[in-house]
Design goal:
about 160 residues, mainly beta, Factor Xa Inhibitor, globular
Length: about 160
């Protein structure tokens, strides 16, 4: 069985509208990581015996991304400048046909792949943190986190 390499999956933001999507990938993407978790509530009682019993409750996810900054991103790619613009948007920011994203600083985001049989994960979310260290004589690498505000829907290529 061949290994699946990370190059086949990229993050993309819908910089258009829901009706007319314009999907743009991150320029010079190094790594994107998705971490999903679920809260639990202990529901043990005297009737559950000697083992604890849990109830799965709310789910959560966080995406972490790293990329090298680029002064001249290729057409249909996003650089630090665009991610910073997305980060600056707040709950009052217009969206849909009146502005970028779906509104309130939220965007349709997906982890895309062109490999047949691979998964595509789509959700709505916002950039909730952004970091850009600038090392002396080093390539500028920025990182950001995305907080999903909708369920992550998984489809197959």
């Amino acid at each position: 069985m061949p290994e699946k390499l990370g190059q086949v999956q990229r993050i993309a933001f819908n910089m258009g509208t829901t009706a007319l999507p314009v999907w743009r990938q991150l320029q010079n993407e190094i790594e994107t990581s998705i971490e999903q978790s679920a809260d639990k509530e202990e529901v043990s009682s005297k009737d559950t015996g000697t083992s604890k019993k849990y109830l799965k409750t709310l789910k959560d996810a966080t995406l972490s991304c790293k990329a090298y900054d680029d002064l001249t991103p290729a057409t249909n790619f996003l650089s630090y400048k665009e991610i910073n613009t997305i980060f600056q948007m707040t709950a009052g920011s217009p969206g849909g046909s009146a502005g970028l994203g779906v509104g309130g600083g939220n965007f349709e985001i997906r982890l895309v792949s062109v490999t047949t049989g691979d998964t595509i994960e789509t959700f709505t979310g916002f950039v909730d943190s952004l970091s850009k260290p600038t090392p002396n004589m080093g390539k500028i690498e920025f990182s950001f986190n995305i907080q999903p505000v909708s369920a992550i829907v998984t489809t197959t290529v």
